[in-house]
Amino acid sequence: MLDRIELAVAAGEFLSIVGASGCGKFTLLRLIAGLDGSFDGEIVFDGARVASTDLSRGIVFQDHRLFPWLKVEQNIAVALRNAPLGKDDKARAVAEHVELVGLRGYERHYPHQLSGGMAQRVAIARGLINRPRLLLLDEPFGALDALTRSRRKTNCNASGRTKASR
């Protein structure tokens, strides 16, 4: 149960929330993402009250939560459904994010054809594709092997933008 939570996070800041299982960490992330509206109080992001989901706030869950009937590229593209981009720009963004998470060649695979770590990378690409101003992460790297985790960490430049590795 959450009670009297007050946070202020500056642009560019990285914040970790640590606590025992069941203490409300995931609930807090869902509230900030706008996935749950049943609470007392107020959540403000960029000067506006959070009342629902928004493309400026992304979330990557602990488990991949992919749609089993959609292929890799379609699972990533789902996040762009409400994005103000044309069809070609959406396709380009999906291709860039497939490359970013190291899944080129797997675009037309279904989730059941992927390892757990690969499926989680699809979820990470889906969380990043809208370039959210705030990215909420619920232990998203647990399913990735140590080599993949360390390789992905090195793919950020000084501006914080991610780059695909080859």
Notes on the protein architecture:
The chain is mostly helical and 166 residues long. It has a single domain (25-152), classed as Rossmann fold (3-Layer(aba) Sandwich), CATH 3.40.50. 30% of the residues lie in helices and 7% in strands. It has helices spanning 25-33, 72-77, 87-100, 116-128, 146-153; strands spanning 44-45, 48-49, 57-60, 134-137. The strands form two sheets. The chain has a two-stranded antiparallel sheet. A two-stranded parallel ribbon has the order 3-4. Helix 3 (87-100) crosses helix 4. The model is unreliable at 153-166 (pLDDT under 50).
What attributes does this structure have?
4 strands; disordered C terminus; two-stranded parallel sheet; Rossmann fold; 166 residues; two-stranded antiparallel ribbon; mainly alpha
Short structural description:
The protein is mainly α. The protein has 5 helices and 4 strands, in the order αβββαααβα.
Low-confidence runs: 153-166
Strand ordering within the main sheet: 1-2
Tell me the radius of gyration. 16 Å
Question: What string, H for helix and E for strand, traces the elements in order?
Answer: HEEEHHHEH
DSSP, total strands: 4
Let me know the CATH homologous superfamily.
Answer: P-loop containing nucleotide triphosphate hydrolases
| Total helical segments | 5
Major β-sheet, in short?
2 strands, antiparallel
The amount of helix comes to 25-40%
CATH topology: Rossmann fold
Distance between the termini: 44 Å
Percentage of residues in DSSP E strands: 5-15%
